[in-house]
Design a protein that fits this description.
Strand 1 and strand 2 (about 70) form a beta hairpin. The two termini are about 25 Å apart. By secondary structure, the protein is an all-alpha fold. The chain has helices spanning about 15-25, 25-35, 45-50, 70-80, 90-100, 125-150, 160-170, 185-195, 200-210, 220-230, 235-250, 265-275; strands at about 60, 70. Helix 8 runs antiparallel to helix 9 (about 200-210). The protein has one domain (about 1-275): Glycosyltransferase, CATH 1.50.10.20. It is built from twelve helices and two strands; from the N terminus they run H-H-H-E-E-H-H-H-H-H-H-H-H-H.
């Protein structure tokens, strides 16, 4: 483990940027522009993401859906974050919806009506899915709090929601730092717990993630590094090791493989850029 503290990033950033320019859609190219220069997106770009947002404030899992999904809403918040949009109207509505559907024990679950088509990590009532959704919703509410405080110095809006989510996650950690849920639960929960000052518990989870790093897919590594960087964990050994791994798995065309097929390769590449910029 200790040797990983000496690794350096070897990502070809120019090739990654070229891949997104060549293969990305207008929203993805706008995300690239914001990540590179902080430039505001063109009129209508954020509206493309806002399209489909339900009256309640969340987004449905599919384009023809009407019931908002916790997982889909967190995905849209990630897209908005890449456009500097977490302080906008759409994000505010989404965050309010997330706060409103948090359960009394601090968790999030998908609406029961989504069960017939839900993937395993979003299956209503499933304990592993509950832990994952609690970690990911808590993570994005944490990012929004960080963004709001940095921009406007506002007091924490979701302090009680995040404290409850963190307590639930901590209660489900095993003595060895592992967790009874999906791999992606780990980096979202580590970020949530660090922000809630559960530093020891977050560090234990990071050690487990580091042990698994070499066996992770490029998409998982990109998401891990982008998440930990976003919540200001600093340039620690895990982040440096993840960046090195991204350098090792970058394709010759500059992109990275998605776990969900080639149509999502640009999104994975954008995530890697966010992790390494």
């Amino acid at each position: 483990m200790g040797d990983r503290g000496n690794v350096t990033a070897v990502v070809d950033m120019d090739a990654a940027i070229g891949y997104v320019v060549a293969h990305g859609d207008p929203v993805e190219r706008a995300r690239l522009s914001y990540l590179r220069t902080g430039s505001s997106p063109a009129p209508g770009t954020v509206e493309r993401i806002e399209h489909g947002q339900t009256p309640e404030g969340g987004w449905p899992a599919g384009t023809d859906g009407t019931v908002p999904s916790v997982d889909a809403t967190c995905f849209r918040l990630a897209e908005l974050d890449d456009l500097g949009g977490l302080h906008g109207r759409a994000a505010a509505r989404a965050l309010s919806w997330l706060a409103g559907v948090q359960r009394g024990d601090g968790t999030w679950q998908e609406d029961a009506s989504l069960a017939p088509e839900a993937p395993p990590w979003a299956m209503p009532g499933d304990p592993e899915a509950t832990l994952y959704l609690t970690a990911v919703a808590g993570f994005w509410m944490t990012v929004a709090e960080i963004d709001s405080q940095a921009r406007r110095g506002q007091p924490a809006r979701f302090a009680s929601h995040l404290a409850a989510a963190a307590r639930f996650v901590v209660a489900h950690l095993r003595p060895d730092g592992t967790w009874p849920s999906f791999l992606a639960t780990g980096w979202h929960a580590a970020g949530l717990l660090h922000a809630q000052e559960f530093f020891y518990e977050s560090a234990r989870m990071q050690i487990v993630l580091g042990d698994r790093l070499d066996d992770m897919s490029p998409a998982h590594v990109a998401n891990l590094a982008a998440a930990l960087r976003r919540v200001d964990l600093g340039d620690d050994w895990l982040l440096r090791a993840a960046r090195k791994r991204l350098g090792e798995t970058q394709r010759t065309d500059g992109g990275w493989d998605s776990d969900e097929g080639p149509v999502f390769d640009v999104n994975t590449t954008l995530t890697a850029i966010r992790a390494c910029r």
